[in-house]
Amino acid sequence: MRQYFIFFVLILSLLFLSYLSLNLGNYHVSASRTFHLLKSWILGQPILAEGYDDTIILFLRLPRIIMVLLVGATLGTSGCVSQGLFRNPLVSPFILGISAGASFGAAFAIVFLPKIPFSLDVMAALGGFLAVVLAYFIARRADGFVPRLALVLGGIIVGSFFSALVGILQYIADAETQLPAITFWMMGGFGTIAWESLFPAIYIIPVCLLLLMIFSWHLNVLSLGDREAMALGMNTEKWKLFFILLVVIAVGCSVSRSGVIGWIGLIVPHISRGLIGPNHRDVLPVSALIGSILLLMADDIARTITTGEIPVGIITAIIGAPFFVVILRKRERELWN
Amino acid sequence: MELNREKAMAISDLSFAYEKTEVLSHLSCDFYSGERIAVLGPNGAGKSTFFHIISGLLSSYRGSVRIAGREIRELGRGRIAQSLALVPQRHEPVFPFLTRDFILMGRYSHLGTLGIPRRKDYQSVEQAAIATGITELLDRPYNGLSGGELQLVMVTRALAQDSKILVLDEPNSHLDFRNRFLILDLVRDISKQRGLTVLMSLHDPNDVVQFATRVLVLNGGKIIADGHPDNILTEDLLGRLYRVRVESISGDNGKRFFQPCGSYTTKSIRPC
Predict the structure, then answer these.
(1) Same domain for B140 and B257
(2) Do B99 and B13 fall into the same domain?
(3) Are B239 and B152 found together in one domain?
(4) What is the pTM of this model?
(5) Euclidean distance between CA atoms B121 and B110, whole angstroms
(6) Do B135 and B177 reside in the same domain of the chain?
(7) pLDDT, tens only, A150-173
(8) Contacting B residues, span 97-126, partner chain A, CB-CB under 8 Å
(9) Contacts of residue B76 in chain A, CB cutoff 8 Å?
(10) Closest partner residue to B88 among A84, A228, A233, by Cβ?
(11) B173 plus B52 within the same structural domain
(12) B115 vs A221: CB contact, 8 Å cut-off?
C-alpha cells in the first residue's frame, strides 16, 4: 500500500515538475500558452506561433526535458544496480571507468574529428564501453571468474589511464576552441539537445532500464556476494555480465549526449532505499523516478539561475556533495556496521 | 532404520589442491539419508574446502562427488541448490533487507528466469520460519538482528531452499553458550522431522556427541576416523588430533564430556 502511494506521489511530482520546467526559462511563456502549445503538438493540431514561443517550447525545451528525464532515470537506476552489484552503497555507475572512457572519446572527437556529424556522441559512447570492457578483462581470472573487488580495481586503473589520455588531448587541443569544448563537455550539460539528438537514446535507454527492472530480483541475490549467490543456485558470472552490459549501454547512451554528470547516481539509490526499502524490485523504479526529478531540478537551476547557462554537472556536484554528507550521517549504521 | 538406506551423497577418491598445496587427499565416504554427520578436525584440516567442494562451489577437484547418483560438477548451479543447501560460516549483511525477503532468496533455485517469487515461495518462507520459530523476526530488517538470531535466519533460509541435504559450516562457532546449544538442537529436531541429511563442521567434540549420528574426523586432508561418535571419540584420538591432553567426564545419564587439560608436550599423552 505504502509502495503504491510512493509511486503515485513520485509520478505526479515528475509530471508536475516536467510541466513546470517546460514553462520555466528566460524567455517568458505563460502557463496557459504552454499548455495550449503542448496540447496542439500532442494532438497534431496546427500551431499558431506567438513570437518564437513554439520553437522555444516544442523544439528547445521539450526535447531537452525528455533527455534530462532519460539521463536522470539512467543515472538513478544504474547507480542502484552498481551498488547492488558491488555490494557497496558508496559506489556510483561510473565505478568501472565509464566516465573517463567517455571523456576520452569525446575529447578525441573534438580534437580529431570536428567535422564529422555525431562523432562526439558515438566516440563518447564507444570510449565508455571500451573502458568497461578493459576493466572487465583486467579483472577476469583464467578460470572465467570475475571477482568484484578486482572489477573495482580494474575500473580505477582504466579510469586513471583514460584520464591521462584526456590530459594529453587537452594539452594538444586548440586553446581557443577545442579546449573549452572539451572542458564544457566534461562538466556535463543539456544545452545542445534538440529532437534529432534524442535518437537513438530515446529507444535504447528505456529498453535497458526496463530489462534491468524486469530482472531486478536477481540483483537481490547477487548483492549477497558471489559465493552465497552461487550456493543459492545462481550462475553469478552470467548475471554479473548481464547487469554490467545493460548499465554500460544505458549510461554510455546518456553520457554521450549529456557529458559526465556526477552525484545523481550515488545519491539517488540512498534516497530510494530510505523511502521504500532495499528490495531491488522496488528500489530500481523508484530510483529512476527520483533520478529524473532531481536531474530535472538541477537542469532547471542550470539554465535559469543566470542569463547564460551553467553546466548541470556543476549544480549536481554543488548540491550533491553536501547532501551526501547528510545522508552519510543519517545512515551511518547501515553503511559501516 | 539402518536397513534400506538411501545414498544421499557418494564421495570417492576426492583430492583437492590450492596451487601445489594439497588440501584434501583421497577421501572416500558415502552419506546416507537421515544421517547427521559431524566433521571434526583442527583448523586447517580441510573442513571448509571439503564443504565448498560438496556444495559445488569449487569444481577443480579430482575424484568424484555424486549427489543422487550424478557428478556434482556436471550439475548446474540451480540443480545443486535444489538438492543441497549451504549455511555459510559467516554472513555480512550489506543492505538492510527485511528478514522475509532475505529468507525468500533461499527460494532462488526454484524461481523461473525472471526470478519473480510466487505465492508458494512466500508460503515456503512462512513454513520454514515456523519450523525455526522466528516468525516474529520476518518483518524486521535482518541487519539489526543479533548473532544468534541471524544464524537462525540463515538456517531458515536453508530450510526454505527445500533440499534434502543441509550443509552447515561451523554453525555455532561465534554464538553464545545458549545459542550454541539451541542451533544444534533445532537442526537435529528438524532433520529428524524432515528426514534431512545434515553435514556440519564442529569444533567441540561435546557437540558432536550430542548432535551427530556419525563423525568424520579429518586431519591433514585425510579421513582418520569415521563412525558413531560413541565409538570414535576417545581421549586418545582427541589428544592426538588437537595436540592437547584430554580428559573425559561421565555425566549423570552416562553421557561423556571431553575437556582439554594441559598442553601436549611429548609424543605420549600423560594422564591428567
Answers:
(1) no
(2) yes
(3) no
(4) 0.91
(5) 8
(6) yes
(7) 988 999 999 999 999 999 999 999
(8) 97-98, 101, 105-106, 108-109, 111, 114-117
(9) 235
(10) A228
(11) yes
(12) yes
Domain count, chain A: 1
Q: Which of B88, B91, B109 sits opposite A233 (nearest CB)?
A: B109
Q: Identify whether B1 is part of a domain.
A: no
Q: Would you write out chain B's pLDDT as a tens digit for each of its 272 residues?
A: 454 578 999 999 999 998 889 999 999 999 999 999 999 999 989 999 999 999 999 989 999 999 988 999 899 999 999 999 999 988 988 899 999 999 999 999 999 888 889 999 999 999 999 999 999 999 999 998 999 999 999 999 999 999 999 999 999 888 999 999 999 999 999 999 999 999 999 999 999 999 999 999 999 999 999 999 999 999 999 999 998 888 888 888 878 899 988 775 555 555 55
Domain-located, residue A8? no
Q: Which residues in chain A have their CB less than 8 angstroms from residue B78's CB?
A: 233, 235
Query: Is A227 touching B (CB cutoff 8 A)?
Result: yes
Q: Which residue, among A73, A82, A67, A99, has the nearest Cα to A261 in the 3D structure?
A: A99
**What's the DSSP call for residue A10?**
H
Task: Spell A151-170 as b/e; 16+ CB within 10 A means b.
Answer: bbebbbebbebbeebbeebb
Write out chain A residues lying below 8 Å of B98, CB-based: 277, 279
Q: Print the domain residue range for B266.
A: 234-272
Asked if residue A328 belongs to a domain, the reply is yes
A328 shares contact with chain B (CB less than 8 Å): no
Facing A278 at nearest CB: one of B57, B97, B161 = B97
Whether residue A336 lies within 8 A of chain B, CB to CB, comes out as no
Contact residues for B16 (Cβ-Cβ < 8 A; gap 6+): B22, B23, B24, B46, B49, B53, B58, B60, B61, B62
Q: What is the ipTM of this complex?
A: 0.92
Residue B2 in domain: no
Are residues B81 and A221, on separate chains, in Cβ contact within 8 Å? no
Please indicate, yes or no, if residue B241 is contained in any of the structural domains: yes
Looking at the complex, does the CB of residue A143 fall below 8 Å from at least one CB of chain B? Answer: yes
Are the beta carbons of B116 and A217 separated by less than 8 Å? yes
Residue A41 lies in a domain: no
How many domains, chain B? Answer: 2
- Residues in CB range of B245: below 8 A, 6 or more apart: B239, B260, B261, B262, B263, B264, B269, B270, B272
At B167, list the grid cell: 550443509
